[in-house]
Amino acid sequence: MGQAWGFGRHGGPEVQEFFDRPDPVPGRDEVLIRVEAAGVNPLDHLLRAGLVPGLDGGRPFPRVLGMEAAGTVLALGEDVDGLEVGDAVFGFALTGGGTYAETTVLSAPNTARIPAGLSGIVAATLPIAGTTAVDALDQLGLPAGATILVNGVGGGVGLAVARLAAARELTVIGTGSAAKREQAEAAGARFVDYTAGDVAAAARELVPGGFDGIVDLVGGASLRAVAPLARDPRTVVAVGDQSVSEVGGRFVERRLDRANLERAARLALDGVLAPAITAVHPLSDAPAALATVENGHAAGKVVIKVA
């Protein structure tokens, strides 16, 4: 038996609970891991609320929160290739196992070895934020010297996009609340405080000719406000709001495979995707860790250290 943090039904924070569960049995193309660390993401509370159906693996309640983790392989399911018991790994819990737990199962094709020199804490932040940043910028394919707006730069994905864009020699402008300025500027972005007035007008002052690309991490009215700043609407890529098509843009095309995880890990080792980890909580403090992200107060990545 091991402790886990999850939810007994769909809803808000009130449905969350700690509970004990037996170690999951890895199925076909799954690996059982002892969790060292789990990344905390907005997707977690959306799943808890029942807003992202299809990612629960059909598992019964109570379900475990969390979608990304790093740890050590304890057992292999059938047909697992490229991983062995004892490997230090990181990846996605795409079959509903959750990651805020002492043990869990990861999808083997969406799991990679942690390279020497990379900590489990850092590796646990890469499956979602790291690979999303890579995917968004690859999709845009902007050349060195181009301009890019990161709308909502202060979170884990936004800071990863800014760092990677700066490493590709793009001119980066990032929007966020005043509390996110220091982290955004450290990531290589010129900062626009969206609490100080018309954010679109302020960004246009910095880049009067319009942006070569926009990566949106906010959605809704904010996305609609900044989308006209793109020189070509097809260069607006949204990470969380599929209504981006209404402004002529595209939703990010995600690649969750092992090769993309390995690529993100190499970039992290090189310091390009060095995540801004602003808080590390023990599993017993998982409620506070998720609340920080859910309330929009996280500047960077929040991690739960389990083992």
Tally of DSSP helical segments: 9
> Termini distance?
15 Å
The biggest beta sheet reads: 7 strands, mixed
Mean pLDDT: 95
Question: Compute the gyration radius: what is it?
Answer: 19 Å
User: In one word, what is the shape?
Assistant: globular
3D architecture notes:
The chain is an alpha/beta fold and 307 residues long. It is 26% helix and 27% strand. It contains nine helices and 16 strands. Helix 7 links the parallel strand 12 and strand 13. The longest helix is centred in the middle third of the chain and has 15 residues. The radius of gyration is 19 Å and the shape is globular. The model has no long low-confidence stretch (mean pLDDT 95).
How is the topology of this model organized?
Blueprint: E1 2-7, E2 16-21, E3 30-40, H1 42-48, E4 63-64, E5 68-76, E6 88-92, E7 103-107, E8 111-113, H2 120-123, H3 126-140, E9 147-151, H4 156-167, E10 171-176, H5 181-186, E11 190-193, H6 199-206, E12 213-216, H7 220-226, E13 236-238, E14 250-251, H8 258-269, E15 277-282, H9 286-294, E16 301-305
Which keywords apply here?
307 residues; alpha/beta; 7-stranded mixed sheet; 9 helices; 16 strands
Task: Give a quick summary of the entry.
The mean pLDDT is 95. Helices cover 26% and strands 27% of the residues.
